Amino acid sequence: xNKRKREEEAGNSNSMEIVWQTPANPPxxxxxxxxxxxxxxxxxxxxxxxxxxxxxxxxTIVDLFAEEFKGRPYDYYVSAVKCGRxxxxxxxxxxxxxxxxxxxxSHFLHRHEPPVMAHDVSVLQNELDVLTVxxxxxxxxxxxxQYRKNTIVGILQAEYGxxxxxxxxxxxxxxxxxxxxxxxxxxxxxFRQQIMVDANIDYNxxxxxxxxxxxxxxxxxxxxxxxxxxxxxxxxGTHSIVLCEPITGRTHQIxxxxxxxxxxxxNDMLYLSEHVIGRSAGGMSADRAAANSGHSPEFIFHDxxxxxxxxxxxxxxxxxxxxxxxxxxxxxxxxxxxxxxxxFRYSGSGWTYECPYPDWASLPE
Length: 365
Hints:
Organism: Quercus rubra
Largest sheet: 5 strands, mixed
Domain Pseudouridine synthase RsuA/RluA-like: 129-259
Region (Disordered): 1-24
Strand order of the largest sheet: 1-2-5-7-6
Radius of gyration: 23 Å
Strand content: 25-35%
Number of strands: 19
Order of helices and strands: EEEEEHHEEEEEHEEHEEEEHHEEE
InterPro entries: PsdUridine_synth_cat_dom_sf, PsdUridine_synth_RluA-like_CS, PsdUridine_synth_RsuA/RluA, RluA_PseudoU_synthase
Helix content: 10-25%
Keywords: RNA-binding
Distance between the termini: 56 Å
Shape: elongated
Structural class: alpha+beta
């Protein structure tokens, strides 16, 4: 549901109405802006909810945010607490407030989602219980991290009115190809049982990458068992088109197994080098703690809160937002392209679904 609250200028009849969104608000066609080959999401107000972890307890509310969510400056969090954009258990608290374990913390902010490539999400088959689509590269399958509306599930709901949808498998965000979604939970369970599936794979969530693990001196292996079959289809002497058949399903399995063989995907910057700089989780944790409740607490505005005074053609500027006036969030370089990795076919007992090959899946003769 939406929660509306009107903020009034002191001694002034002018006012601004802000609509805070929750995960219950479905994406709509007008939420998207197509610009320079990218699909952007019009920034919107959103309530992030997290609960105080053991290591957070005993810190001031401002220090907690400044230390755990480094994507914004300290002064922003001071202003956000004073203004009521950061609340504890639905109440405005002073900047010196000491948080306690399990308390609910709400962060109301002007949310900017990263853009994705502006390719269509084409529907391949729309059956009673199953939907198959061709997923474009750079678009995540479902809400995660900074992405909520700029996802396959969000775009399908906004552009085709298709909801609810239950992804039965996932593709890495930068991977394109066949995506199977069930139209109900029972069908999703059926497919998941069929597709659940030898260098072991160990995924490092902080760095956002996996490694192929081998036995140590004691014979112990850290990663989870994983197996992929590779068949070379063609080559020009420098690059090859390779058919990859994952026997198991682990995070980045195909990518890390190709790296392990000494033949990584040619444009996979994450696995082309063994020495990859770890991605900082700073500023992203609030996104991972996105709210899952269907309502927002009553929101109170103070007269000393910044007001929206300017606007652009595409979206309104929030003067307190650390991303405005840019459309993309801070730190996004806008140069990201898709991997040369494409899901072509999924099959099981009595069923097969396929997706067309991408343009890059051929080598010049």
